[in-house]
Structure formats: C-alpha cells, structure tokens
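Hey all, sorry for the wall of text incoming. These are the two entities for the joint prediction.
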Amino acid sequence: MTSSFHPPIRTLMGPGPSDVNPRILEALSRPTIGHLDPAFISMMDELKTLLQFAFRTTNQLTIPVSAPGSAGMECVFANLVEPGEKLIVCQNGVFGGRMKENVERCGGTAVMVTDDFGAPVDPKKLEEALKRHPDAMAVAFVHSETSTGVRSDAEVLCTLAREYDCLAIVDAVTTLAGIPLEVDAWGIDAIYSGTQKCLSCIPGLSPVSFSPRAAAKITNRKNRVQSWFLDTNLIMGYWCTDAKRSYHHTAPVNSLYALHESLVILEEEGLENSWKRHQLNHLALAAGLESLGLGFAVEEGSRLPQLNAVSFPQQIDEAAVRRALLAEYGLEIGAGLGALAGKVWRIGLMGYASNRKNVNLCVSALGNVLNAQGHRCDVSQAIAEVERVYV
Amino acid sequence: MTSSFHPPIRTLMGPGPSDVNPRILEALSRPTIGHLDPAFISMMDELKTLLQFAFRTTNQLTIPVSAPGSAGMECVFANLVEPGEKLIVCQNGVFGGRMKENVERCGGTAVMVTDDFGAPVDPKKLEEALKRHPDAMAVAFVHSETSTGVRSDAEVLCTLAREYDCLAIVDAVTTLAGIPLEVDAWGIDAIYSGTQKCLSCIPGLSPVSFSPRAAAKITNRKNRVQSWFLDTNLIMGYWCTDAKRSYHHTAPVNSLYALHESLVILEEEGLENSWKRHQLNHLALAAGLESLGLGFAVEEGSRLPQLNAVSFPQQIDEAAVRRALLAEYGLEIGAGLGALAGKVWRIGLMGYASNRKNVNLCVSALGNVLNAQGHRCDVSQAIAEVERVYV
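and here's what came out:
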C-alpha cells in the first residue's frame, strides 16, 4: 500500500514555484463547486477584473489559461500565428528559444534577434531586424528572463513593434506583480504570465491578455487554431460572455479559487507597493551577497529584483552548496539553466517569498554553507549589510 | 476592494466535477515544494505506479497531463496523428465530436461512425468502416459518454481495432475507477481520463497512458508534434527517466499532491470494490427514480452507473427543478448536453459522491421538488425502494 505524501517544509527561493502564501493554500482547499454554478460564474467575473488590474489593462480577453505558463505561451502563439506568417523573436535566454519552438510548430517563421544570455534585448538589433523584415507580423520577447535574471526594456521594444506595424507579444511569466508592467500604456498586444512566481500562487495556471487588435486577428483567422483546448474563440464562450456560458472544458475550480485569493492579496497591498517591496528586498539581498564575496551575472541596470542570477568563484562546487542548503536549511535556490548551467545560482525573491526574513535566511545560510565548505566569508558582516538596507 | 471568495457548500451530483473527498482537499493544501525537489521526484514515481494500477497497465508512458481532460484528449491526438493520416472516430455523443475536431486540427482525416445520442457504439458499424478504410491508422471511441450516460463495449471495439491493425484510442474521462477498465488486457493503445469524475479529485489534470506500440509511433514521427506543451517526447524527459530530470514545464505541484492522495484512497478501497460500489449505488438510485415515475434515456445494459441520464415527463420545467435543487438543497445535478439538452438530467454518482447518503438525498430532494411543482409522486415509497437495494 502506498502512503499519503507529506511534503517536507521548504523555503522556496528558486526560479519558481515560490513560497505560496498560506492564505492562498487555504483558499485552494475550499470545497469544490461546479464550473457552471452561478456562484462560480460570479467569481470568474471578479477574477477577470482582478487580472485586468494586475496587467493594467482594459482588454476584454483577459483570462487565466487552465494550464501552466508554457501553455499560456502556446495559447498566445497558437491563436495569433497562422501558417506562413513571419515573426521576429528576440532571444536572450532559454525562454526566447521556447518562443521560437512555438512559432515554428504553429507553421510560422521565426526571425531570431539574439543577445547573450545575461544581457537584455538590444533595441537596436530589433530595429535592424524590423527594417530587414517589413513583412513581419509580430515581435515577441521575454520581459523578465527567468533563465538569466535579466529585465529587458519592454516599453521601448513595444514602441518599436508598433512603429513597424507589428503586434507586440510579451512573456511576463516572472514579471507580473514583481516589476512595473503596463499592458495598455506600453501597447502590448498579447501577454502571458504564470501564477507560481510573483503572485505566490500554486503552479498550474497562466493568466493571458489580448488587445482588441490581437483579438480581431484571432477572430479573422483564415485557418482554425490548431489547438482545440487553447482556442480562444471557443474559450471566450465560457469566460467572456454576458449570455449563457457555454461549456468548453471543465475549469480547474480550486486552482482558480487560489488565483482569486492571490489577486485579492495583491489588490490589498497595491501593485506599486508590491513592486517597491520586491526592489527593496532585492537591494538587501544584493548587499548581503556582495559582502559574502559573490557577484551578479547581470549588469546593475538590468537586474530583476525577483530573480537574482548570482555568480560565484569557480572553485565552488555549486551543486554541493545547493544540496547543503536544501538538506540543512530546507532552503531551495535554483541552478543555472541553458548557457548558464553550472555558472550561476538563481535566487528568487518572488511575491510572498520576497521578505526580510527570507533575505536574512538566505544570506546567513549561504554564508554558513560556504564557510563549511572552506570558502571563508564573514556572515555577521553580510547580515549587517543586509539590515543596513532596511533602516 | 474585492473580498475573498467563499464557495457555497454543494453536493455535486452532476456530470463532474464530483464531490472531492476532504482528504484530497487537505492533501491539495499541503505546502508547495519545488518541481525538481528530490522529495517531489519520489512522489512522481509513486504517482506513475498508482496510475498504472488504476489503468491496469504496465505502460511506461503513464503520466498525468498538467491540464484538464480535454487537454489529455488533445495530448493523445496531437502526439499520435500526423498530417494526412486517417482515423476512424466513433461518435455517439458530444465527446466523440470533440475527437473529430482534434483529429482534424492535427491535420488528420476522421472517418465518422455514428450512433444515436443515448446508444452505445455499434461494433458492426465499426467493422464495416474498418473494411471500407483499410488505410485507417487508428480507431477512437468514447468508453463512457459523459453527455449521454452510455457505456460502449470497449473490449469488443479494441479487439476489432487490433484485428484491422489499427491503434485503439479510448476516452476514459468518466470511466476510470467507476466501471471495469483493462488497458493492457483489452489492448488499448492510448487512453486519457480526468481527475474530477470517479477519482473524486479536483478538476485540472488528465491521466494518460500510451502502449509501447503507440509510444514507438510517437518516437518515430516524421513531423514534430504541433504542441510543444503536450509533446510527450519532451515530457518524458521530466516524467519518465532514471537519469537527471530535465525541466520541461513547471508541474502543477499541489494538484499532483491531490491526485496522489486520490489514488492512495483508490488503492485502499481496491479497484474492484470501487466498481462494485458504483454499481450498487446506481441500482439504488435507479430504483428510487423509477419509483418517482422517472425513466432512463439509456437501455439497461448500456447504462453507466456513475452517470445516469434521466428522462422526465415533458410537462416538467427541467431547469426550474435544477434551480430548486441547487437553491433549496445545495444539490447540483446536470442538464442535458448536445442533442439531449432539455431532454434529460445527468445525475452523477462518481467516486466519493457515490454513496448511500447521496442516493437518499437525491431521491428525496428530487421527489420533494417535483411535488412542490405540482408533479405528484410518493417520496417515502421511493426512499423505501432505494433502501431495499441496500438490504
């Protein structure tokens, strides 16, 4: 006989999932009701309004996809791309590469604009590509590259896309609630995010939003969307109607309770306050890590406060450090991914996990483990540097 | 400011979601851990074994898709169908039609074998189609049609498929744990189910399983799977490997806790006992409903015990009855779907919700509401008929 699974208690400071707020776990476990229950329909309406608030948009087509962030990415490309269409995809990390995969699997062509892993997307390169490819239909880029901890200038990139009459498609999986994001003001046409990052909700849902311009393109497609499950023309009959809701698929009822609660918490805090909190805790973490003798893989101006790509002296056995943090402190930090595998740690300070307690825990635990492995550093000095930021 | 959402307490006896066992809701709310945490990886291994147990299979490629049942359906077709291939799709309800949609969106051709809504798939019609279309690659059918409450003879249909050298693709969304299902013994090549039916788990996941023959077809595809998110070639690197797990997408950690718990409960009860329990409660419900003067839309030999398509006298305002059940008893039963909309109720007795208490509640509440709406029936007699079945 198999036993029930009782997970160990961790502090999640990797690239996501981040620690889930206990209020959200409690909401998640409320009794399931039907996906066509009038009470559930009212909750869905609130959820759309809350997502519009978080995205800063009035887009009607703003909903949570019933699957993780990579399905949100696929939802955006599968709905917008028709076979034979050309898109410019900016890649400066793992997730830009995944965008290319998606474009190609939808029958489109991806013109790649590449920057180094660890650098932001270069607007000049994008503009050159836009000039060379006047037939491009859209520009796609990752706002917050979870694989490298880099923030690109979404406003500038979207403005360029608009100048060259392209739709702007933005990956905001790690962005939402962590750093400023203005879907309407920046002219973003299609955007997807995740719930398990700065919303501190459970993994498994992907909020998406489409501008009226993007929605019109979907409505006027020549070919059917290749995914039935992700076809927004069908999903809208359930999520976006004042008339009788039509059944499409069974909504993930409890996960949507959790997302609702996480957005209620965000509304209580205020979006700007959430952005400020992420920045403050990032600065405190950075002060502590630098005092320990660690560096950043990303230039100061492009660092994501919610995901810190931390470099370390070459002689450190980075996997052993992560194992010790997990075993001795229940603390999860992330390994590098793609081109940065083995070269950085990814330390997340996302949502609920972005707090003074966690910054202190991370700096002291990391310092202790480094000392135990023979890399001398002054933990109390590092903690003092952390606390100085909060004063 | 938006308030937290507190759902009303319902008894879910519709076509799904069914009532979730409180043990599963509690498991769902356990603290989130990372999707690459060693403790989580161990849980995943158990989960695969438990799914093999529930499906009665030794298929290695047996995993939960990170999205609802309709994504499980899409996972099966997107992986197995290459452009230009022909499949025979049996349709006797709404979900057979959705299979056709999926085949076509994957670039395949669906040869339809149709039976009336409310009738099982006719093996003779299938055999005729197999003879007419020797180039067909697969046969697809719905084992338990959730839209009509009909069970088709999966063993016979799979045997036919195998005789004509076709893969057998089976929709078991409402089947799993409710009625006998033998993936290996019946020669099923690809199957998908849902968690919100007879597993009594939350909606949002779809267990799937592929036979070695089906897995080989996927591995040897000429074209890439059109969905990145559902590409089992990629998913296997995370779920089905003894080597280092590679990141594909962030697993829906908490939902997987819930699925694990629901399968632990199923293992404790035993699969045969679960089938017997569903049958017994169905007989009791049927006795009570017939005593109230209601009928069944499906012939006795083809009725699903877990989903009862109930017919009623024409003069009844069926929507008013459902509204009264919900408002006065917190009891959800389902409306008809597709060709049976307005003609039947769909009363589910699925998983945890399939119990003596619910059968009594449903018969007495329905009788009381019918009386209140002027349709005379003898509730105490009906309850006596229910109880007679349990003696």
